[in-house]
Write a structure and sequence with these properties.
With 71 residues, the chain is mainly alpha-helical. Helix content is 79%, strand content 6%. A two-stranded antiparallel ribbon has the order 1-2.
Length: 71
């Protein structure tokens, strides 16, 4: 199939970015619930939103693969 390596890269990259987003979101959430406002020099809400953004990028990568496989 044409572009097979690129599809694998997008699939694996999307999964990696999504997992990183989940880890970042969970870490920021736990840190914030425990009463801390900063983690690694950033506000926890900033890290939480960044983690959600990473998960969104991972979802868009998967959606791109699903939509391109139908054409």
């Amino acid at each position: 199939r044409d572009g097979g390596n690129m599809h694998k890269l997008i699939a694996n990259g999307g999964c990696a970015v999504g997992v990183l987003g989940v880890i970042l979101t969970v870490a920021a959430g736990i840190w914030r619930v425990s009463g801390h406002f900063h983690l690694a020099g950033f506000e926890t809400i900033t890290l939480f939103v960044g983690g959600m953004g990473l998960m969104l990028i991972g979802c868009f990568a998967k959606l791109h693969l699903l939509s391109s496989s139908r054409t």
